[in-house]
Amino acid sequence: MKAWDDEPLFGSDADDTAARLPRSRGEPWPILVVDDDPQVHAMTSVLLRDFDYDGRPFEVVGALSAAEARTILAERPDLPVALLDVVMETEDAGLRLVRHIRDDLGNRRMRIILRTGQPGQAPERDVIVDYDINDYKAKSELTAQRLFTTLVSALRAWRDIVTIERNRLGLERILSASASLFELRSMRAFVETLVDQLSRVVDPGGDPAILACRRVERGDGVPHMAVVAGIGRHSRIVGLPIADALSSVLSSEVEEAQQTNHNLYSGGHCVLVFRTREHGKTILVLEREEPYTADEHRLLELFCNRVAIGFDNVCLYEELIALNRSLEQRVETRTAELAANQRALIQAKERVERALERELSAKENQSQFLSMVSHEFRTPLAIIDSAAQLLALRAEQSGPDMLERLSVIRGSVQRLTGLIDAHLTDERLQSNAMILERSPTDLAILILTVANPFQVAYPDRMFRVDLGGLPRQAEVDSHLISVVLTNLITNAVKYSGAGTAITLCGHTDGGMAVIEVADQGRGIPDVEIPRLFDRFFRGSCAVGVPGTGIGLHTVQQIVHLHGGAVTVDSRVGEGTRFRVILPVSV
């Protein structure tokens, strides 16, 4: 153990001109002085009594041994600086205390200044390398000014370390808080959690008052700023307009931040603008007793910038949920419509099936009726026609005046027979029961045979016949072609007046035979020609003329069945020309 008076406590102050500053009333800087010499404690207190730094004086926290220093450090781990002697209760007590502070307590913030009166006991080069200390001073070189300079340097380093550590912890809290925010999917839960996490970032363990404001629509549809979340004393004003919830100063600052997009810092509160690209702004108001520092300003802005992405994600998620609900509703509505349409289709199908059954039944009855008519009417009609022929032969000798009446009777019989044949033919065509019975046929003779009864029945018509260009033979069903010619000549007779000409001509065009039937009658309007061959269609020119509307339809079906075509040219008031084109051979 060294003697108390072996070394002078401090070097001479003769050359030092340390300025004496006014005493400050701020909270003092606590300086741990560990030395077994009470005079060192007393002199250190005296020297530091007239100095201050950053508006705060110095306070000496003394310990006469390393053991006593350990007790003090256990109670006050936040001491910034330690002036530590090496030789105390043992020759390396100070060095062991350094190991305890750095390794056992894990205190890396404290600045340790090793101060010794016996440099030989602890050589500077070895100590500075082997021990985590921040400075090494001999007591003889520590004048008042140098002591002050050493302490100020140590305090600055300690403050910077504390600031860095505080910022690091703040960043860790930001990362932790923002990670939990990214998991939220509800806007309300996001804002409430944002307010709660923000309090932990700026004031962990404290009790700040924080609220969040956003523009919301009133019942009248006019947007206004209102409190949407809050903690502390602001938890009671959630839902109120800011004009009713906040003081006039805070309310005006919120509006200013909303307009300017700039954060505002004033004393113990700050107003933050929390912006996103597509989903508007949220204004955060933070209040506490202590003013927010510049470092905390940066932390707050960093926090807001980081969680802005989470805010957008929540907005997009809510939009997605709303869109999904809309789609679900539309799908549900559409499904209901489809179900209703399906039921309607089923009902319509049932009605169509019933109608089809009735139609099939009616067609069967019609077929049976036509068969019966054909069987029951043909024989009487043949008898009537034969009787009319015999009477005409006798009338030529005994009563020529009877010939005209007999001609009318025979014409009526022919029309009725033709009507029965037309209906029977149409029925067979519609039921696909028609089978062509082709045979070599002289078309010119067939046309003359069909036209001859009309010439006899209608002597007031001029029949012009030019059939020399037709082929000698054609592979056709002569009976069906007779039906075609009968229908066309009948129409020519019905729709032309007395004294007009009906032309029958024919020629060959390659491998096709062309038969033309023309009249000088009423003609057909252009708008009606596309429907002329529709079944049961009768044009405007057919008013007052008897008919069923199936004749031309039957003509087209028979011609198509032969592999041919039928066309029509017509002018109203000038007449109509039908052209039938048939292949000569199969």
UniProtKB/TrEMBL annotation:
Residues 317-366 form a coiled coil. SUPFAM superfamilies: ATPase domain of HSP90 chaperone/DNA topoisomerase II/histidine kinase, CheY-like, Homodimeric domain of signal transducing histidine kinase. InterPro entries: CheY-like_superfamily, DUF3369, HATPase_C_sf, HATPase_dom, His_kinase_dom, HisK_dim/P_dom, HisK_dim/P_sf, Sensor_HK_Regulatory. Residues 30-154 form the Response regulatory domain. It comes from the Bacteria. Pfam families: DUF3369, HATPase_c, HisKA. Residues 372-586 form the Histidine kinase domain. Transmembrane segments: none annotated. Keywords: Coiled coil, Kinase, Phosphoprotein, Transferase, Two-component regulatory system. SMART domains: HATPase_c, HisKA. Its EC number is 2.7.13.3. CDD domains: HATPase (cd00075), HisKA (cd00082), REC (cd00156). The modification 4-aspartylphosphate is found at residue 85. One of its GO terms (molecular function) is phosphorelay sensor kinase activity. The lineage of its organism: Bacteria, Pseudomonadati, Pseudomonadota, Alphaproteobacteria, Rhodospirillales. It is an enzyme of class 2 (transferase). It catalyses: ATP + protein L-histidine = ADP + protein N-phospho-L-histidine. This is histidine kinase.
